[in-house]
Structure to design on (359 residues):
């Protein structure tokens, strides 16, 4: 996949600008707070339907305007495509793919696949399990629609099951109702966990190799926290665990078992990165995971997604910068920086100042 042109109208600090991208390496260059990250945000937003900053739509629209437009053209192995996203402070956003309206965000996800890395990605290692589950869900959903549908179905069933647990009915009545919802929850949870385990297995085949290419040392391993009991299927293990936790859940008022509680753990030489790695090591691991995701998505859909790198070079020494940039030549990369490093790789140069593309 390759983005060819991007037009922004009243998006963040952009009034109206159109930028052309090349197939390989693209540098968005400018001083801080000029609009480089905003441009990457727009690409991510139009790809997955949500801002990587968790911003609300009305916060993204230029402060003195009521509406905004993102218009993106890109190529895939099956042809050219266009996505338009209309943001409105008074209404929900609307989206068109090849000038046809879509009704649900599930129709958007996977149309243009992207992998995004920013300084905030450190939370993938350091912060709460919710951040790591979000990484799993956004990543897998980009190449597997069934996973996304199962995820939405699971969230709906989980909400219904938790409503029963929180209700003012007697525990006996709650237990009877849970007999109906627990099997539904298990059925969907099994599909989600199975896909996550499969995904982590693929990452573990690629990530250690990429990590060695960048660091030359340290062994990286990624682990999914769900470990089923020996000789049991995932379905059997989930069923037993949920049944055994009913009394605890009746007391707490929420479901304690399932993929909504699972986590990822990253190990360097057998030690948990969250507690034993330096911030520099943690940042490198997060970057390696995103580069590995590029390879996984390519294997799944038959072509590379677009790589978006925000302010990654400033955290790497010159040697690691070169190692990283040499790895990105096989797919389209859009990278923000304050100045272009000394490289012998062809690249496209886009200078941004105050939300304006300098010609």
């Amino acid at each position: 996949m390759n983005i060819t042109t991007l037009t922004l109208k009243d998006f963040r600090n952009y009034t109206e600008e159109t930028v052309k991208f090349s197939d390989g390496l693209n540098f968005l260059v400018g001083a801080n707070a000029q609009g480089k990250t905003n441009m990457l945000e727009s690409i991510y937003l139009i790809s997955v339907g949500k801002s990587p900053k968790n911003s609300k739509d009305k916060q993204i629209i230029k402060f003195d305007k009521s509406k905004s437009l993102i218009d993106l053209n890109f190529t895939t192995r099956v042809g050219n495509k266009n996505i338009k996203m209309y943001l409105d402070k008074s209404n929900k956003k609307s989206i068109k793919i090849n000038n046809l309206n879509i009704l649900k965000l599930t129709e958007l996800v996977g149309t243009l696949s992207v992998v995004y890395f920013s300084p905030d990605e450190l939370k993938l290692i350091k912060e709460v399990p919710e951040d790591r589950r979000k990484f799993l869900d956004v990543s897998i959903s980009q190449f597997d629609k069934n996973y996304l549908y199962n995820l939405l179905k699971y969230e709906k069933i989980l909400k219904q099951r938790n409503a029963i647990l929180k209700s003012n009915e007697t525990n006996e009545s709650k237990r009877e109702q849970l007999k109906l919802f627990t099997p539904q929850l298990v059925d969907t949870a099994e599909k989600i966990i199975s896909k996550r385990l499969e995904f982590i297995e693929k990452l573990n085949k690629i990530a250690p190799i990429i990590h060695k290419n960048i660091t030359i040392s340290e062994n990286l391993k990624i682990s999914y926290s769900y470990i089923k009991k020996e000789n049991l299927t995932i379905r059997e293990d989930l069923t037993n665990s949920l049944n055994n936790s009913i009394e605890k859940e009746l007391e707490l008022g929420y479901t304690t078992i399932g993929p909504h509680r699972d986590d990822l753990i990253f190990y360097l030489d057998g030690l948990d990165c969250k507690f034993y790695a330096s911030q520099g090591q943690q940042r490198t691991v997060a970057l390696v995971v995103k580069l590995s995701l590029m390879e996984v998505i390519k294997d799944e859909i038959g072509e590379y997604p677009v790589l978006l790198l925000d302010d990654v070079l400033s955290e790497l020494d010159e040697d690691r910068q070169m190692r990283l940039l040499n790895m990105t030549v096989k797919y389209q990369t859009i990278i923000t920086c304050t100045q272009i490093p000394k490289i012998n790789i062809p690249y496209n140069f886009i200078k941004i100042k105050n939300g304006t593309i300098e010609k």
